[in-house]
């Protein structure tokens, strides 16, 4: 597949130095790219770089955008304005044309659809993971208390789905302010049941005790790599990495 250089698109996004892209997703079927920026705008582009629309959909940074894998006209946006919103790309007219608004208690790092498109997984910047169901988007199916609080120089930890099974995988950053915290709690990779929210197992390598997150991200500005976890497509192998 040829590599495209979207020079004009990047110039529009980066020309004001205070504005930049924070999130991105692609639909190969619909041939569109959706991005979110740090000012609350969501931009829809064709795969040849043509801007289709640019609307301010959130009050603050759009930390994550996700297209539903089964209905690629269904878009979820997560913002540090403490909301996740679900949109129909075919009917967007402005910031109030969302299908559902899902308020959270803290800024939200991510909103990820399951592979069957029937559930939505959200991760806030403090200690809560939520699972929503398509049968009732506006009310969480389950709430999972989980320490992964955000720091300025730490890549935001984002929970994600196992590619084959109803499992949630997320990196743990122990928080002594939580009642569930125990002395010398480890920074593990936690696996939860997607229905019950029950902890299924924890993964830990004593040789590498750094923070682990669950999304592939670029290096930090100082060159250090944040925690990385990623399943292979079959879901039988999980690769993790942490640079000090």
From TrEMBL:
Single GO cellular component term: nucleus
InterPro entries: DDB2 (IPR033312), WD40/YVTN_repeat-like_dom_sf (IPR015943), WD40_repeat_CS (IPR019775), WD40_repeat_dom_sf (IPR036322), WD40_rpt (IPR001680)
Ranges occupied by WD repeats: 55-90
The protein, known as: DNA damage-binding protein 2
Chloroplast among keywords: no
Keywords of this entry: DNA damage, DNA repair, DNA-binding, Nucleus, Repeat, Ubl conjugation pathway, WD repeat
Region (Disordered): 222-244
Biological-process GO terms, alphabetical: DNA repair; response to UV
Family: Belongs to the WD repeat DDB2/WDR76 family.
Recorded GO MF terms: damaged DNA binding
